[in-house]
Amino acid sequence: MMGSASIEDRVLILAPRGRDAAVVEQVLARAGTPCKVCSDVQSWTACLREGAGTALATEEALTQEDAEPLFEWVAAQPPWSDFPIIVLATRQAGPRSARAAKLLARLGNAVLLERPINAETLTSAVASALRARLRQYEVREYLVERERSQEELRTANESLEQRVLQRTREVEGTRETLAFALDAAALGSWDVDMVAGVTRCSPRFDAIFGYERRTVAWSRETFLQHVVAEDRADVDAALETVVEAGRLDIECRIQRADGAVRWVAVRGQVTYDAGRAVRIAGILLDRTEQRVTEDALRQSQKMEAIGQLTGGVAHDFNNLLTVIVGGLDMILRRPEQPERVMRLAQAAMDAARRGDQLTQQLLTFSRRQMLRPQTLNPNRLLLDFRTLAERAAGAAIELSFDLDPAIDPIRIDPAQFEAAVLNLIVNARHAMEGSTRKARLTVRSRNVRLGTAAVADKGLQPGPYVIVSVEDTGGGIPPETIGRVFEPFFTTKDVGKGTGLGLSQVYGFARSAKGFAEISSKVDIGTTVDLYFPKSTDAADEGGTAATLHIPLRRAGDGETVLLVEDDEQVLGMAIESLEELRYRVIVARNAAEALDHLMGLERVDILFSDVAMPGGMNGSQLAVEAQRIRPGIKVLLTSGYVANLDEGQVIGRGELPVLNKPYRRDELARSLRLVLGRA
Question: Is 47:36 a contact under the CB 8 Å cutoff?
Answer without folding.
Answer: yes
